[in-house]
Amino acid sequence: MKAYKRPFDEDAPFPLELTYRSTKGPQNELPDHFHEWYEIVYVYDGYGTFFINNLFYDMYPGDIFIIPSGTIHHTLPDHSRPLTSTALFFDDTMIYRELMGKSFSYMHVFDKGKQLNDYKLSLGNEQQHHIESLFDRLYHELSHQSIAYQSACIHLLHLFLLSLNRMVAEIHKEPLPTVDKGPKWMRDILKYIEIHLIENLTLSELAKEACVSPEHFSRVFKQTTGMNVTDYMTTKKVIKAKELLLSTDDNVAVIAEESGFYSTPHFYRVFKKYVGETPSSYRMKSYTS
């Protein structure tokens, strides 16, 4: 099973969605997925594990998770204590790029999480009340749709991101510890894949690196990440290619090689299958947006 690309309407006139105080058990959760929109998840109650990128986090009440665009993730709610959470999804076209000539970026909190590979904040009581209040106000605006409700939602989104950036500056002095989910060799192999992603790694080679049999490796990898190793690596390569398409002027053939694809035609086929468009059209769209 490859990572599922959650669909959002890329041409939506108001690209913001809120899943408010939803309670989910293991049977209700999406499999591994990624999407173009940014996501913020706040936990009210229950317990679970959050798999983001290549890390596992415990989920407790008062935790908030910052998930950048194009990041593989899924939640694993506890069977006996289902998760109650709110999830906010939005496209970054909603965000002001500049504010009175200052260099502050509302999206800094996402960039910081990606830089540190750390996506969790554990909030204190006062911070929890503040975040919950903002979610309540946002839900009220979206539900009632009073005059200029969209402008109110954009204002609240910016206030929300400003609050998170201030919290990061205050409490995120160093990366938070992650959960020791699964055997150590599994955690080590996820790091190994990240480092050697452009290589043509095989299941047998990875199993040898982990010092386990290929059958055991395959079974534990899927149990731990929700994906088989081939689909996991392919999805990671596609995400890397997307980043290079937007951040460099390299031609598609070079990006295919730098992302670990063995040929340009193969890269085109896989990219279109996972993203829904060719690499060239994906890059061109970013230039015109």
From TrEMBL:
InterPro entries on file: AraC-bd, Homeodomain-like_sf, HTH-like, HTH_AraC, HTH_AraC-typ_CS, RmlC-like_jellyroll, Tscrpt_reg_AraC-type_HTH
UniProt-listed SMART domains: HTH_ARAC (SM00342)
Presence of the UniProt keyword Acetylation in the record: no
PROSITE patterns registered for this protein in UniProt: HTH_ARAC_FAMILY_1, HTH_ARAC_FAMILY_2
Residue ranges annotated for the HTH araC/xylS-type domain, each copy included: 187-285
Pfam families: AraC_binding (PF02311), HTH_18 (PF12833)
Gene Ontology molecular function, alphabetical: DNA-binding transcription factor activity; sequence-specific DNA binding
Spans traversing the lipid bilayer: none
Keyword match Transcription regulation: yes
Keywords: DNA-binding, Transcription, Transcription regulation
Tree of life domain: Bacteria
Record protein name field: AraC family transcriptional regulator
UniProt organism field: Pullulanibacillus pueri
Lineage: Bacteria, Bacillati, Bacillota, Bacilli, Bacillales
